[in-house]
Design a protein that fits this description.
By secondary structure, the protein is an alpha+beta fold. It folds into 2 domains: 30 residues; 102 residues, Beta Barrel (OB fold (Dihydrolipoamide Acetyltransferase, E2P)). It has a 5-stranded mixed beta barrel with strand order 1-2-3-5-4. β4 and β5 form a beta hairpin. The longest helix has 27 residues. The radius of gyration is 20 Å and the shape is elongated.
């Protein structure tokens, strides 16, 4: 009988711990519209400075020059790693120092952050000129393409 009680307690503890982990990840995730504005499309080009390949979203960072030549670092949220892999991405698709163009939507808070819809690799990339789906969380909340730069 003691073995049964011990095994049952261990199983319940394992289930409770798993539930806490799942609930924490669900709570931490956000909707597109809570953080990004589907009415503010933006297109930026710059040099990759960092790639953060992790759940729940991959983030890429790039240095972007404005019309006055000033450089600002931008962060672009992509989809989850497994979604990007289904779209043809690999962890090594982007390398530091490569030129890219990102189409997406501005952050609601006005920061240099965006939700990426597509990423186009320049001649310096592993797949020159290829435009890759960013597995965006935008879903059906926004227009199909973000072609025009937004005013800042």
């Amino acid at each position: 009988m003691e073995d049964f009680v011990s095994t049952t307690r261990k199983l319940l503890a394992l289930l409770a711990g798993g539930s806490v982990l799942i609930a924490g990840n669900t709570w931490a995730h956000h909707s597109f519209s809570a953080e990004f504005d589907a009415e503010k499309p933006i297109k930026i080009s710059g040099i990759v400075t960092k790639v953060d390949w992790a759940n729940p979203h991959v983030w890429i960072y790039l240095n972007v020059k404005d019309e006055n030549g000033a450089v600002a670092n931008w962060g672009a949220e992509l989809g989850p790693p497994h979604g990007l892999q289904r779209s043809g991405w690999q962890r090594e698709t982007l390398k530091i120092g490569e030129q890219i163009t990102v189409n997406g939507y501005l952050a609601r808070n006005g920061s240099n952050r965006m939700n990426a819809r597509t990423v186009t690799l320049a001649a310096t990339g592993a797949r020159p000129g290829a435009t890759l789906d960013a597995a965006s969380s935008v879903g059906t909340e926004a227009p199909a393409a973000a072609a025009a730069p937004a005013k800042q």
